Amino acid sequence: MSDTSRRKFLAAAGIGAAGTVGLTGASASAAPATRNTDSAREPVVAFVEHPYADRVHLMVGEREIVVHDKDLAARILNAAGGR
Amino acid sequence: MSSHREAPEISKDPVADGTDVYAFVSPNRPEYVTLIANFIPLQKPDGGPNFYEFGDDVLYEIHVNNRGDATRDVSFQFKFTTKVRNDKTFLYNTGQITTIGSPNWNRPQFYSLTRVDWKDDKKNKEVLLGKGLRVPPVNVGPRSTPDYAKLSAQAVQGVKQGIKVFCGQRADAFHVDLGSIFDLGALRPLNEAHLISMPNMNGVNSVQSYNVHTIALEIPIKQLTRDGSVPKNPLSKKAVIGVWATASRRKSRMFDKAKGKYIGHGPWEQVSRLANPLFNEVIVPMAEKDEWNARPPWNDKRYAKYVNKPELQGLLPVLYPGAFPNLAKYDKPRADLNAVLLTGIPKGVVPGFQNYTGAVEADMLRLNVAIPPTAKPNDLGLVAGDAAGWPNGRRVNDDVVTVALRAVAGLTLPLVDPSFKPDGAASAVADGTSNANPAVSDNFPFLGLPGGGYQTVPGTTTAK
Predict the structure, then answer these.
(1) B201 contacts B183 by C-beta, under 8 angstroms
(2) Which of A43, A44, A63 sits opposite B267 (nearest CB)?
(3) CA of B279, closest CA in chain A: separation in Å?
(4) Strands, E, within B192-296: which ranges?
(5) Which whole-number Å values give the CA distances from B265 to A40, B82, B259, in the listed order?
(6) How many CA atoms lie less than 13 Å away from A76 in the CB half-sphere?
(7) Does the pLDDT value for residue B186 go beyond 50?
(8) ipTM, 2 dp
């Protein structure tokens, strides 16, 4: 997953932008996410089915986008763990 | 039955629960095929104030395969939208509903109908056949819906491609003795012969007072065949189409507390499937029923073992000791049931007839469109010599419970295995119900008018 698409996901999911969940770890020093011109304009549901895999499922509109991104999966899992 | 509450998961989601599928050449328009899929089982007509309706959050589909591989070639997709006209009342209607567009109906429902053509199971073409199509209200009672037949007729609408469509409440046309069959496989007319013996009695039609929600299409045959023809030769491969219906929900649902309801996200995922009556109900083991509902028919080979050696075949000799000695001894795969349910009946089994779709084992309702409608139908269909009835498609009045029970009991086995002699009891097997449902219509959508809420009286259930 590129930085662009990772930022797009975080922005669309409201993570980081809302400021309610502090992400730590390797990506903490990444540039703040900004929305791309083609980022989602509707609600997005993110789903990590297997905590030991790198797969993140994104539900947007009537589509499902599956991204393989170990870093992204780790950040979501860390956030879900409250760290 | 035939697929009312047939699997654990879908029984908790009645709005998406398919109950019966019918496919037949229209008796009064033999150049057309009628396809019907019923949903929302066992509706008590007086179930207000929030009466039954299609789900705005469900995708309902009727699929047709015309190339024998059991994948989708044509799908008809129905999406519903419900409006609330008056947000200041709790009432379903604020006065008499005398026309389908009456402002007194507070909760009108509309739908779109889209035809999707597939190639190799991938979307190839999509045509919006109609939108803003109207669903009639339910049959509330003589004060609210005084002329229900009129409301129903107004809901029969024409759309593109010469297709007629109806979506709305109807009387269930299926008849079966649920209370008896699921009480340890009892058939009331054979009660005395049951392992736990009771006096013989007539069957009780468990669904005669209940309504369903119907999706019905009347389609020119040429719109469904693989080459756009209207086949006249019953032995031609292109004369056979496979039909099944599904309901799907969005993959993810999030509860929106502000709105007090769930909002769907992501793609549609199939949660209900139905073609032949009773397949998932009595063939597929309980532990696999939910998964079966989510799968496509082309991959049904995995369920062939349950067709070839059905559990019910083993139960009959146990539940009715001494009545089925020949069936008890039969240990070969049931090629007759495999043909009826999974491949279609090949040429040479029934003279002048076939509905074989090839070697792909798949539960589809197979209709040979070159078989003309029968002037005086026999409700026992093909096994009684009426080739226009189940398992050649399925007509509204076909007595599929009796046919299926007798087939499992071995009555159809000699068609493929002449060495087998059916037990005498096989031709007597029946649940003893008669078709006591509201009269069906001679015209599209053929199912009877739904029972009214006001007209409904309590049943007679007892704990003893």
Answers:
(1) no
(2) A63
(3) 30
(4) 211-220, 240-256, 261-274
(5) 13, 19, 16
(6) 27
(7) yes
(8) 0.84
pLDDT confidence band for B87 (50 / 70 / 90):
very high
Residue A64 and residue B266: Cβ atoms within 8 Å?
yes
Query: Could you tell me the pLDDT band of residue A10, with boundaries at 50, 70 and 90?
Result: very low
Q: What is the pLDDT of residues B313-365, one digit of tens each?
A: 999 999 999 999 999 999 999 999 999 999 999 999 999 999 999 999 999 99
Does residue A1 carry a pLDDT above 50?
no
> Which residue reads 């008809």 in tokens?
B76
**Which chain B residues are within 8 Å of A59, Cβ to Cβ?**
250-252, 265-267
pLDDT mean over B239-251: 98
pLDDT at residue A2, as a whole number: 44
Residue B250 and residue A62: Cβ atoms within 8 Å?
Answer: yes
Q: Given CB atoms, is A41 within the 8 Å cutoff of chain B?
A: no
Closest-approach residue (CA) in chain B for A44: B265
Is residue B404 helix, strand or coil?
helix
Distance from CA of B264 to the nearest CA of A (A): 8
Is it true that the peptide bond before B391 is cis, omega within 30 degrees of 0?
Answer: yes
One DSSP character per residue, B48-61 reads -SS-----TTEEEE
**What does the pLDDT look like over B262-306, one tens digit per residue?**
999 999 999 999 999 989 989 999 999 999 999 999 999 999 999
Q: How far apart are CA B83 and CA B105, in angstroms?
A: 10
